[in-house]
Structure formats: structure tokens, C-alpha cells
Amino acid sequence: MNLATLFVLLIIVLIVGGAAYRVYRSIRDHDTCYGCSAKCSDCKDGNPINCTFEKK
Amino acid sequence: MITAALVGNPNCGKTTVFNKLTGAVQKTGNWPGVTVERKQGFLRGAPKDDILVVDLPGIYSLSPYSPDEVVSRDFLIGDSESRPDVAICIIDASNLERGLYLLTQVADLRIPMVVVLNMMDVAEKIGMRVKADALSEILGCPVVETVGTKGQGTSAIGEAVQSAYEERTVPRTISYGNAIDDCIERLIPIIKETVRDDLLRWVSLKIIEGDSMVMAELDESTAASARSVVEELEQQVSDDGMQIIATARYKAGEAIRDGCVEHTESVDESERISERIDRILLNKYLAWPIFALVMFTVYLVSVQTVGLAISDYINDELVVWVQDHAAEAMDSAGVDTVVADMMLTGVIGGVGAVIGFIPLIALLFAFLVFLEECGYMVRVAYMLDRVFTYFGLSGKAIIPAVIGIGCSVPAIMGTRVIEDESNRNVSIICTSFMPCSAKLPIITLIVGAFFGASALVITSLYLFGIVMILISGLFLKKFRGFIGRPSPFVMELPVYHMPTVRNVMFGVKEKSWSFIKNAGTIILLSAVLIWALSSFTFTGEYLGDSATTDSILSAIGKALCWIFVPLGFGGSETWELTVASFTGIAAKENLLATLAVLLDSAVGIDGLPTMEVLTEYLSVTAYPEAVAMSFLIFNLICAPCIASIAAIYRELHSHRKLLLALLYQCATAYGVAGIFYQGYVLLHGEVGLGVLWLILFIAVPVYVILSKRPFGFITGGKEEVQE
Hints:
The complex is a heterodimer. Chain A is mostly helical. Helix content of chain A is 46%, strand content 0%. Chain A contains one helix and no strands. The longest helix of chain A is centred in the first third of the chain and has 26 residues, at 3-28. The radius of gyration of chain B is 30 Å and the shape is elongated. In chain B, β2 and β3 form a beta hairpin. Among the domains of chain B are: 2-167, Rossmann fold; 178-263, Helix Hairpins; 289-501, no CATH class. Chain B contains 30 helices and eight strands. At the A-B interface, α1 of A face β2, α15, α18, α22 and α28 of B.
């Protein structure tokens, strides 16, 4: 495996890893809807219309 | 810390004031039901103590009917320790009587109160001058004037809350006339043992109203004694308790209004203009054609012409340019074929699929936000209310249906505005039939490939969503557990106004960014995963270009594709559509990602699943248009994405109900797509086994809908029968 292949592989790992982490975080925070672009944590208690953040 | 509850009628600007107070960016809207659960945030720049502001769903009274109204009432009553320290009662100054009706009820709870006169600018426009000082004098609590949309006066609310808390400025006791006051005096000793001191007056009034929730809290003997006192009052006034109290509250409200309102000479021109516009837009004969024309124009510009041109440029020029240059660079650098293919097809293909659809999403939402902001959408809800009620559904089911154009998750949660549980359950199950923004790319792709990106077809698909909700209403209402009374939908028609560019741009940014953020990441991951599954065999051998027929995914697709034979895309030559339909259940965006990767290999054309690719791919089938539309219909109405399924579960509170809901959605999708495909085949003169499918798909729902007697249905952990 040459250096160029390693470099491209690294880019793929970074992009896919970043996306995977983003998906994991959205599932963890129940932030999975398209209602708004704000992070649920920014909404304090979360807005049920805009996100699926669990209420306590 | 001070806890302050924001309470007010629907659509009085509570959420706007909440956002100004806390710096939050909660969704606001000009129809009732935008807030269905309480939300909270700390007041920015609080004068002394920390002030926690809790925004409650809008209510007309403290006699709740729907779950969101119960949220407000429960929070305000609380228990002796957890009730709010201060109630911030927001009143639409231009609609004072209605606000005062609720205010008299909140005042009866004996909580320190601050009154916020919001929309003062609108009140002035219609020739009303509300004197805050006079109102404060009458009520005995602080009154703040605000214009929530401009942020005027909101900074004074914090100080008013602090002073109401420190000085315990509970409003003056409102008298409802001698007869009622005497009755309250007689009721208090009866309920004193069972009711908290601070709620004695309020509970007494609720007993006179015959409030079922309050009566249920009393023991039998107390309830019987209280009822006999109320009966005496009813005989004395010759009316029923609820009517007596409602009349008394309105009279009290009118007296308060007369003491603080001056009418000026000015007349609101915009209201007159609105009335004139409504005479045309809500005209008995013109309303529906105009609505169809508006929606047609929206899709014509956003999808068929401008949006498509930009999208095509991105797909055909930009992404292909990036792919070509990346391929060239990797080839010359000697990058391994597998890694290069993963980069080109999986990563760049996946990212390109997202970017290509952003112009469509942005333009569509620019129009939808404009229509909502200017006041037309609420009129659409008004028009649909009559249709929904005719089909036995709650008029309020329109709210989730409209929200569902954006995303099914908030739409499913929005069904909480529907009072009747049976009607609510029908809406929870059917709301996802509306095409959400994640389904838009797949609609655009298929309609673009086979119907010339016709705006008429795309508009029809959104109307199809509404029709499916209505038919489902007729169908499900034939089952015990879904039989309920349609409830009236009280809503106001706001005055038309030109939306600000800032608001429209904000809405577009919100929707586009959330599409990139949420859909983008999922599409990218799916594209890479699908690429991997379609590029390798079970033994781990790399297949390379155009050899996906031996891949892992191909084996799975071919093993399952028989399921879709009656729908037209179950043949082994279209196994990719079977795989896409299954991956679509995880997230609808996956449909696009799956097709992006699989069609690329299947057709042997580099690039995204463009319309040309799809057309060529389906050319092997006998009826490509019918197969494409059947595939589209199935995926529009079958079980929604995982996030929506989770929302359905949260709202139905039952695994069994969830399973039944998913079964209904999938069966409906299967049946309707089957009717379309087999009907199309029959119309083209091909008579075969498909006719039997067609008869079955049509006969079952028609038999159920025409049946006079309801069918048995198990709706929860135990059998429930509701009629």
C-alpha cells in the first residue's frame, strides 16, 4: 500500500468517522428530526416540536 | 430561583416573548398548537434572582380537553411546593376579552401574577388604546406592555416578575356576583378538608362548572354535598353550572376591559385589506382552485424549473467535475483501486447526492415559510378543517399534516393538540403519509425521470398524502378503538402581512442546514456501507465496477425481491429497488444513497442517480413509468424512518399499538402501490394473475369502509372498546 493510498484512506476514515460520530451523537441526544438546525442542548429543555429530546 | 410560568391563549405571542426573554430559538407559528409541551429557559439579564421561565402550551381556559392543555393546567396547579412562584399571563391586547377570560381563571389560582399586554402595536392599529396603569389598578398586579415581535417592553418583564415574587402581588379576588360568591362561601367548608387552602376558591368554581377532573378528586360524600349546593345555585339562576360561570367570567372580563380601554379614531387598514383578500382566497368556489394553483406554482418554481436547473448543474457539472479530477489525481498517484472506488462512489457520490438536493429543499421551504408567515397556511388549515371533519377526523389533524411536510417527528408529536384519543391515534398513524423533506429528493428523482419533473405530478403527490390520511380516517374508524367524535377546531385567521426577508431567510437556513446536517451524514454513511456491501462477495472478494450481481447486497436483494412482485419491482433485474425499500425504513434518505451507489454500478454510468440513470435502469421492465411510480408510492406511505417510529411509540405508549400502526402503514403502502401498478398493467390490456391482486387490494378496504358494523380491535395491553 503506497503513501497516496494511505492518505486517501485517512481522508475517508476522517469523513466517515466524523459522519458516524455525528449520527451516534444525534441518536444519543434524540436529535434526529429536521425541524430545526439548533442543537438540542442549546434549547435547554428541548423543544418537542423541533426535536425529539427526551423530557424528564 | 424564581419559577415563572408563561400562560396565555394560543397564538397570543407567548413563544415569541419566551424567545426574547430567554434567547431561545423555539419554533413560533401563527396557528394554535405550535407548543404542545412545556419548555423552559433562564431569563437573560435577570435583575436579582435567577428566573426560570416555563413556556406552557396555549389554552383558552383551565378546563382542559386535549393533552397539551392538561400540561398547562397541571403545571399551574402543581402541588403546594412545586407550583410556579409567579404566573406571567400574556394577553393579546388586540383581543382583550378572550385573554381576560383566561386571566380571571389564573387569578383564581392565587399565584402572584404579572400581566403582559402583548401585541400593543396591533391593538393600536385597530383603534384600541389599552391603559396598562388602569389595568394594573383594577387587577392589583404589575402590567407590562410589549410588542413581542420587535422585542419592545420585554426587558421590563424580568423586573415585574422579581417585584411580584418579592411583594407576593396576588391579583385581587374577582367577584362573579352575589349568587356565585355565596355558593363559593358554602362550598369552601365542604371541601376544606380535602383541598389545599390556596386552591379553595378555584376548586369551588370548578365544582360549580362540573369539572370532571376536579370532581373525580373528591370523595363520594364530599362530591354529593357539593353537588347539592351547586344544584341550588342552578335552580336559583335557571342555568347549568358551566354556563353560569362562563357568563360570569365574560361579564367580569368585560368590566375589566371597560375600565382600561379607550377607543381611538384610527382604523386598521390592513384588516380591511385582509377581509377583501379573504373574500377571494376563501371564496366558496375559488378557494380550492386557488390553493391548487398556489401549490402548483410552488413546485413549478422550486422543483420543476429554477430548483431543478440549479440541482442539475450541481449534479451534472460540479460533482462530476470533482469526481473526474479526483479519479485522475488518484490514478496518477497510484492509489489502490478499492480505496479509489470507495472515495469516488461511496464518499463523493454520497456527499454529491446531498448537495444536489439542497437547492430544491431551500427553494421549497422559502415558499412554505413565506406562505406560513404571510398568513395563508392557517387559511389552508381552515379550508381543510371542513374536509377532515366530513371524513370523521378531527379538524386539528391538519396541523400535524402541515408540519409533516417538513418532518414527521414533530408532526407526530403535534397530534397532541387533538383532544379525543381515538382521533389522535388515527392522526399519529397517518401523519407520516405526508411527504417529508427527506422524501422530496426521491420524489424529484422519479418524477424527474419519468414525468418530466412535472410540478403537477409533485403537487398531486402532496395532495395524495392528504387523500391517504382521509381514506385512512374512513378505514380505521371502522375498527373499535378508533371510533371517536371529531372535535371542533377553534382557530383565528390572522391579518395578512408581508413576511420579513429575515424571517424567510432564517426559515430557509434552518431547514437547509438541518437537511445537510441530519440527512447528509446519514446519506454519506449509507452510501459507504451500501458501496461496501455491493462491492464485495460473502468471501470478501472485491468485485470492482459493474459486478454487483454477485455481491452481498445482491444476494440479500434477490432473496427478498419476490415480496414486491405484485408491485412491479420484484423481479431479479430490479433487486436494487428491493434493497432501497428496506434501507429506506432506517431513514428515508437511505433510498437516495442506496440508489446512488447501486444504480451507478447497475447501469454502468458514473455519477449520481440522475434521471437518465434511473430511466435506463428501469428500461428493462415492461412498464418503467408504472414501476417507478409504484416504487415511489410504496416508499411514500410505508413505515416511516426509525426516528418517526420512535415518535409514534412515544405517542401511542404501547408496543402493540406501534406494531399495529406499522403493519397498517406497510399494508396500506403495499396495497395502494399494488392497485396503481396492477391497474396500470390492466389498462394496457395485460390480463393475468395481477387482476386477482387488484381485486384483493381494492375489495378489502372497500368492504371495511362500507361495512355498517365496526370490527373488533385490540388497541392496547387489554381490549378496549370505545364507541
